[in-house]
Specification:
Layout lengths: L1 H10 L5 E3 L10 H11 L4 E3 L7 H11 L7 E3 L6 H12 L7 E3 L6 H12 L7 E3 L6 H12 L7 E3 L7 H11 L6 E3 L1
Parallel strand pairs: 1-2, 2-3, 3-4, 4-5, 5-6, 6-7
Length: about 190
């Protein structure tokens, strides 16, 4: 019995990467993805980039993330989650202590979505890498993120390119970096 328990523990340490990018997955497919890839396979990395997942599908993912202890990397780039999807992910980040990488490139989250993600980062988030390129977050969205960077010490990479960030946003980031040592900010 002890040997079986040890074997089970060793298997849980093996990274499981699931690549489902550009498969035309929709919100209707998300429950199956959650059941098979996250709950059954206990994947550590899930790539859902380039599909047709909206805030509805992300809501299901976010609910699982709140208690999930295996998924470390989640790629959701080029879907259509919008600011509502970002809100659900932000709520999950407040609770989840396992997710280290979140890629939301090109999801139209705007400043409102950045605010919700920032609220998630202000808690006990384990997130190291956050990619928010091409999301039109603007100066207001950067202001929310910069405010959180004053206290967040886990985030090491923040990608903000192509987000209509002006001088005010750049100043907010510069001010935040006086109190934080995020080594990689791209904007």
């Amino acid at each position: 019995m002890n040997e079986l328990s040890q074997q089970s523990n060793n298997q849980s340490l093996i990274p499981i990467h699931v690549q489902l990018e550009y498969q035309n997955l929709t919100d209707a497919d998300m429950q199956h993805v959650i059941d098979e890839q996250i709950l059954k396979k206990q994947c550590t990395s899930l790539n859902l980039s380039g599909n047709q997942i909206t805030h509805k599908g992300v809501t299901m993912l976010a609910n699982i993330l709140k208690n999930n202890k295996t998924l470390k990397i989640l790629y959701l780039s080029e879907n259509g989650i919008g600011f509502s999807g970002a809100q659900h992910l932000g709520d999950a980040l407040k609770i989840n202590t396992t997710l280290t990488t979140l890629d939301l490139y090109g999801n139209h989250i705007q400043a409102v979505g950045a605010k919700h993600l920032a609220e998630g980062l202000s808690k006990k988030s384990a997130l190291h890498t956050l990619d928010l390129q091409y999301n039109k977050i603007g100066d207001k969205g950067v202001q929310h993120l910069a405010h959180v960077l004053h206290d967040n010490k886990t985030l090491t990479t923040l990608s903000l390119q192509y987000n209509e960030i002006g001088t005010a946003g750049a100043h907010d980031l510069a001010d935040a970096l006086r109190n934080n040592t995020v080594p990689y900010i791209f904007f």
